[in-house]
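Researcher: Structure for this, please.
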Amino acid sequence: MSGVAITIYLLNSGPQARPAKRAPNAILVEVQKLYSETQQTVVSGMGEIIAAREVELKPQVSGEIINISKEFQPGGYFNAEEEILSIDQSDYKLILQQLESDVAKAESDLDMEMGNQRISEREYTLLGEEVSDEEKNLILRKPQLEKLQAALNNAHAKVDQARINLQRTRVKAPFNGVVVEKMVDKGAKIGESTTLAKIVGTDHFWLRLSLPIDQLQWLTIPNDNTDNGALVNIYPQGTASPEISRKGKVVRLMAALEEQGRMAQILVRIDDPLCLEEENRDKPKLLLGSYVRAEIAGITLDSGYKIDRANLHDNNTVWLMDEDGRLDIRQVEVIYKERDRVIVKSGIEDGESLVVSALSSPIVGTPLRLNDKSPITNNQMANEDTTVQKGKSRQNHAE
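Model: Predicted structure, token format:
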């Protein structure tokens, strides 16, 4: 029995094997080197293309339309002073001829009166009497002369008006424009209150852009007729590439807020929106009523770090890889937020490595190792993305 007891004691009091703690595996990540640089802010917004010049074309004389241009239809283009339609001139030519006859008669009457003036002046000289100024004017027939001169001037004015009315029978485009709506056709009898068409100017359109009020501080908005407004890139619906964008310039801040969203509204001028000029033929057309996205070049900041918004996590924190290859979660000061990127003012030092890979459970001190196939990149966010994400979408870290 004593032997059994000794055996059991030896078995229980002998050294026991314990599992060794394993060092955590380093997580494979991609990083981006950060350097403070001059940063261009960009303000994004959505807006509608509207007409800058629009008129309801009406005639200035009445009559029957006897001829119309082949371009006088919706979508037809006219240059300034190009004839759109013409009205029957017969009555206006007859009126002009009659009034020109009245001018000839008035000139003849004036010539005869000038003869009478000379006769009256000789008679007054031969009379040799002293008379008052009023009597002298009557003797020399001054009132008759003034009456006939006024009649001649009136006759000339009527002729001038008749010529103007004759010219107005040819209705011309008031500016370079496109027909949006056509209301009359050949053979119609029209008056001065008749609307012929609705025409929109084609030299430039406006983009009425809606922005949050707090974004206005980042923009250069002129308050006069100078051409120093902020530059704008305009992207038509379904496009996002700079190669197919249009250029514009901020011209005005509208006085009223948007009714529904209570947002500020600015006007952006877009030259040749319908691409009628040769240099714009290969660019996308911006049609009236189009809803487009725009990016406005804002104020330039002297320094800052620009990073993707996807790399800014909860409570304005970023993930950094420290010199020992471990994860550091750092809170930063964000000075400006764009649609896809943010500009960080402080909280980062030049040359630090931003972790751009997705981490399911980020914990300070977690060992990291670089993906050798993806080199550490410089911070060139102003022009293009410089990091490559393989197979995973970026996500915020769990708290």
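Researcher: Any notable elements?
Model: The domain at 27-38+303-370 is CATH 2.40.420.20 (conserved putative lor/sdh protein from methanococcus maripaludis s2 fold). The chain has four domains: 27-38+303-370, 44-52+203-294, 55-88+169-200, 90-167.
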